[in-house]
Structures are given as structure tokens and as C-alpha cells.
Description:
By secondary structure, this protein is mainly β. The chain folds into two domains: 5-129; 159-237, Thrombin, subunit H (Beta Barrel). It has helices at residues 73-77, 244-249, 266-269, and strands at residues 8-15, 21-25, 31-33, 36-38, 45-46, 59-65, 85-92, 95-113, 116-123, 159-163, 166-168, 173-177, 191-194, 203-212, 215-220, 233-237. The strands form three sheets. The protein has a seven-stranded antiparallel sheet, with no helix packed on it. A seven-stranded antiparallel sheet has the order 10-16-13-14-15-12-11, with no helix packed on it. The chain has a two-stranded antiparallel ribbon with strand order 3-4. The radius of gyration is 24 Å and the shape is globular. The protein starts with 7 loop residues before the first strand and ends in an 8-residue tail after the last helix. It comes from Pararhodobacter oceanensis. Residues 185-267 form the Bacteriophage phiJL001 Gp84 C-terminal domain. This is Bacteriophage phiJL001 Gp84 C-terminal domain-containing protein. InterPro entries: Phage_phiJL001_Gp84 (IPR011928), Phage_phiJL001_Gp84_C (IPR018964).
Amino acid sequence: MSDLTTTRARVWALERRDGQVMGFTDHDRDLAFDGLVFRAGTGMSASAIVQATGLAVDNTEAVGALSDAGLREADILAGRYDDAALTIWEVDWRDVTWRRVLFRGSLGEITRAGGAFRAELRGLTEPLSKRGGRVFTAVCPAVLGDADCGFDLAQAGFFAEVELRVVAEAGAILTLPELPEFAAGWFTDGHLRITSGAAAGLSAQVRRDEITEGARILHLWAAPGAAPVVGDRVRITAGCDKRFETCRLKFLNQLNFRGFPHLPSDDWLIATPRVEG
């Protein structure tokens, strides 16, 4: 790395959860390495990076202008950059093979003001600051389909891919084909992911699933950050209310149930002997 600070620039590689990778630099021309072009003129900059030894959390932030050439406000509002992976290098712009990693982590809270954004950057040690431990409850704490659950949601009968017929309430209520092979309520507490159109890659949780007049209507807990339109394709997966009966009867997965269905309730804990005359 050159000792002359005037030959140094910073570059950012940002990878969203949908797999899209974007590159930015504060240099006055584009730079490229590792198969990625880092675009100049995006208005991106970063405050001083504070790093410490041990398990201390790296602390920094990035700021930039909202523009079509860089980060678009619509994508930020849609949540496409939530928890996006981020790597920051310092490079010699004359020869980018001379570079070093300054920061590796993810985007945290993003705020907007005056046509610009400010994003908190969270280091790799951020998860270590969270409290851990197992909670003993009657319901299952696992997420359907994750490693603890062990259920394969890709098997037939537990997902469907269809086109939207009607979109209402800014995307919070979606009408699909009837899908008679699935019972009413089959997708309640399930997951919906938009796979085509401008909102592709966004997802939401299903609050209620009902069948009416030859159609299936899904009520979401919250509308996606960008509303889908009629004709967009979605993938929906079966829902689980995390009860033992559901795990056993709906998914035949009772051996992987992570809850404690026979745990005494609060009423049992405060029960007292009853005296009868």
C-alpha cells in the first residue's frame, strides 16, 4: 500500500439478501477487482471506523445520497437492504491489488433525511452481544424448515407457486387461485415470497388463509415493502402454529418437536388444594 494518502480510496461491496451485489467507491472514477465494478459518483462516504481487539463490536456508519445511480429510496423502503452483507476496503487507486479490508459486517438501522440516507454498520461480533439460551415453552421455538425443525418445505403438498389475481390494501390482501388440493387455513402462519415483477425477492408472513367463491385469499401481517401487482408470481409455504398436535398431524415431524407440550401451565403452578365439604 502506498504511503501517500492521496492515492488511497475506499470501496464498498454490498450484497443484499436476494443475492444482488453492488459496488461503490469514494474515488472520482470507477474501480474494479474480484469481478465487481465499484461505481464512483454515488455520493457514498463513511465515517471513521472504530475497531477494537477482543470481542468488542466494530462501530461505524455509512452515509450517501439517494439516487438512481446508487441506492434507490424505493429499495430502502422496501427493506431490500436490511441486514445486507458489507465489506469495506482501503485501496491504492493506481493499483487495486494493493488493498486491505477495513470492515466486514452488515447493514443495521437505516434512516433517511433530506434526500440522503445514513446506515449503521454492524461488525461480525454484533451477534455475540445478543442474549442467548433456550426458553422452555409448550410451543416449539424452531422456525419451520430450519435446522432445528428439520422439515423439508420443498416436498410436494407443502408449497404452491401461483400468479396473483387481485391485490388489495397495498399488497396486504392477496387473491390467488383456489388451490383446492390445500385445505382452508393450510397457509395460515406460513411464508409468502414474491418471485417475479418489480417486488421480486420481498416476502411476508401470512396472518389468515381462507377460501371463498373459487378463490383463495391471503391476509398478510404486513404488506411487503413494495406492493406486487396482478400477474406477479408468488411462492407460498405451509404454516405452522408451533403446537405439538400440528407438528404430529400436519407435518409428521413430532420427533423433531423442540417444545415441551406437557409443561405445566400457569394455572397449574398457582393451583391450591380444594376442600370439599
